[in-house]
Structures are given as C-alpha cells and as structure tokens.
Description:
The chain is α+β, with helices and mostly antiparallel strands. The protein has a single domain, classed as BirA Bifunctional Protein, domain 2 (2-Layer Sandwich), CATH 3.30.930. Helix content is 43%, strand content 13%. The chain has a five-stranded antiparallel sheet with strand order 1-2-3-5-4. Strand 2 (107-113) and strand 3 form a beta hairpin. It is globular and about 60 Å long. The mean pLDDT is 95.
Amino acid sequence: xSTKQYFRPSLFAFLRDLQLNNNRQWFLSNKGRYQxxxxxxxxxFIADFGPRLRIISRQYVADPRPIGGSxxxxxxxxxxxxxxxxxxxxxxxxxxxxAAKDVHAPGFYLHLAPGQVFVASGVxxxxxxxxxxxxxAIIARPRAWIRAKSSQAFKANCxxxxxxFQRIPxxxxxxxxxxxxxxxxxxxxxxxxSEEEACSxxxxxxxxxxxxxxxxxxxFLTTALDLPWM
Length: 230
C-alpha cells in the first residue's frame, strides 16, 4: 500500500482558477503554480505507476516524459473548435498500448478535474474499422465478452460508458442478445472517484485497483484488435 501523496488540493484549486481565467496572460503569470501543482505531480505519478502497470500488462506504457509521454498537454488545439479557450481545465494521463499510440487505441486513462475524477479503461472514439473488429469479436466470442464485463468486482466498480448508435449497425442481427453492446460507439469501463480520494496517499492504489478490475475488459478489446496482451 502506498503512503505517498501525489496530488493535493492545490491541483484542483489551480484548475478552478483556470476555469475562471482561461487566457494566456493569466496562465503565464501562474505557470509556476501549474508546474508545481499539476505537471510535476502527474509526471511523478506516471513514473511510479509504470512498474504497477507492467503487472497488469507488459504491453501498456507509462511514459513520464513531459512532452510526448503519457501526460496530456494543458494546451488545447483550438484550430477547428468554436471554443477558443487556450487551456484545458483538467489534468489527464493516458497509458496506451505499446503498438498503438493513438489516443483512440486501447488504454487506461486518468482524468482529474474539479468535481470530476475518473478512470476510463478501453477504447474511446475508435474509427469504423476498429469498431467493426470489436463488434466481430463480440459476435464471435460472446461468452468471453460477457465474462469480461460481468465479474462481481467489475459490476461493483465499473460502468460501461460511451455513446451508442440509434440504429443497428449494418450486418448485425437486430435480435442478437448483445445488440445493445453492438451499438456502442465507444467501449469504455468507467470508474468514478472523488477529489478527496485523488488527494489521498492511497490514490495510486485506487487507480491500480480500477485498472486491474477493468483489465479483463481491456484484454478482450486488445486481443480483438489483434494486439498482444502479455
């Protein structure tokens, strides 16, 4: 069990202030706060979670580099967005598969924002080819899919989340017993936590437990995409 506190209330205080002052001048004046309260603790958390992640799967990566690693940048890409606020008001880290570095590939994701702390495990916004492979795997191995999302621990701690198509995807049986899962656009297992838990010395244990609980679910998705698990 960990006795190391990574995140403190100052992280959420900074993000709350950023919500009210999302502009370059304010951020530059408070960049030291960002580095000490958000960036540095997140990089330390990522580095320390690496050995724990390898126990779950050696194929997933914890990269503590400040640029190009597991931590998401604070800067938003506003080129194609109507929201021109330059900064994200959350801290995030994505532990992706070594063979699939895109954010839309299988992974374990940590999200820290005021009033919104969660772990998302799985595949977010996959392209049509990836989604079709997962649907084909569910149809081909329905019992394995059901086992992956039906353990007592999973049902107690995770919720299958993500958007669904309103209509049955082309080629799928409308009477299939797993038709609601076949309509999923995202394949995510969500575990909700609190700011208090995020700021506790046991948070890395909570995060590891959430990833371990979702691991059979992520393993199914990983192998469905012809990627190695262990």
